[in-house]
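HUMAN: Spend a minute on the protein record below and explain its fold to me.
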Amino acid sequence: MELKKNPKADVGRNSGLYFVIGLFLVMLLTYISFEWKTYDKTNDYDISMNVEDDLDEEVPMTEQIKTPPPPPPPAAPEIIEVVEDEEEVEETVIESTETSQEEEIVEIEDVAVEEVEEDVDVPFAVIEDVPIYPGCEGEKGKGAKAMRDCFQTMIQKHVVKNFRYPEIAQEMGVQGKVYVNFVIQKDGSIGSVRMRGPDKNLEAEAARIIGKLPKMTPGKQRGRAVRVPFSLPITFKLQ
């Protein structure tokens, strides 16, 4: 029995190519259908505002007010009268301040200048006449060294006599040395007292002792009373 089909004819030989072509056409149609847009017909509209012109009323014209012209200037007098000034004006005479050789020069007497005393502080170690503590008057004829030694001895006796240890400092166990600076003024009084120590209570006691110093004969430098600063250490020591 003979075969009616041509063995050379292969129907499925190009089926893959046809499938790809068909698939491409389908995707192309799908894309065109999604991207296809339709637009409505546009009409040309006049978007300008239809404003009726209602300003048809007549505006009255402002009448111009005519002002009268200014009066003419008065006519000049034909005859000009001259009035004489009878008042006399005093002339101002400016005198020269320059002196001539004929003028006498008056000599000015010497002006007395008063000397102003300045407060000068002279240290105790270099002053000519040291302050005299009450009781040291007898040492005056023995020289400056004897006067200084007597002054310092009397100061030490004063401190020992009036010394009193503060109770609160004893309870707290506070001790140390208080350095006292004061000035013997030009009238012999004590001033400008300053203290520096380890405790306020000790400083207060030192100030109390210095406050009991008597008035002294002021120190002198070149025969004039001056201020004399003096330093004194006071030792507070517990037994």
Observations:
- The first strand starts at residue 176 and ends at 184.
- DSSP finds four helices and five strands in the chain.
- Residues 45-57, 59-63 have pLDDT under 50 and may be disordered.
- The first helix runs from residue 15 to 35.
